[in-house]
């Protein structure tokens, strides 16, 4: 695969994820957020399972008990992110959700600072300031205008950052990204279905009404897009991958405007632009700096 082909696959993955925000929002016209999460990740588990079996046949080492515990912990972090994002979509727009969720790019290195004691690149601090300013502008310059859904989505970005940090260190040890994916999907499905059964009503007609969204997000957003990402990132640079994957927020906002008629004031667009720039500089600047270092 050429680098151009790999980058096009990453762009396709980002577009699928952007469409997932619209599907997540429209599904809740028929079904509760936890039923949607549970069914979505149950489908995702089944979608990834064939790839897991293929991976298992080629694996050099079996998954240890310690790694299994880490998989479950990562699944709990994924559940936290999925739950806060989905519930947040009840009181925020798809546009806001897609951009605020993308702040995990900024939160990942901050988590490394506070929990892993790793010194960050200097760009993290101005990037974090830009991201916070972007949220402020997204509220129209009035923090009171931020909805509960916006604030839940900030929490969602923190959960995503925890999940990404744990998943990165775990996969580097195991070399089993698909096994991790299937496990975390299954853990999230079980947790969400347990909560849904306790607090949300459901009917067969509601599930049928939300079935297109459940299948789209379960099969494509969680299954196909993840596989595309894993394949494509073997043939391109991390910096280029960051650019193409971060376009998820732009696809989410564009599809929300096209399909749902969402709009926002000029300050909101300025906030989205600032958050998008923060996501890019946090990913790209450290990479450029490493490339400029003289060989030793």
TrEMBL record:
Membrane-topology annotation of the record: Multi-pass membrane protein
Record's keyword terms, sorted: Cell membrane, Membrane, Transmembrane, Transmembrane helix
Record GO cellular component, one term: plasma membrane
Main location per the UniProt record: membrane
Location within or outside the cell: Cell membrane
Transmembrane spans: 33-56, 68-87, 99-116, 123-145, 151-171, 178-199, 214-232, 241-260, 266-289
Cited InterPro entries: Diverse_Substrate_Transporter, EamA_dom, EmrE-like
EamA domain location: 7-139, 148-282
Protein name per its UniProtKB record: DMT family transporter
The organism of origin for this protein: Rhizobium sophorae
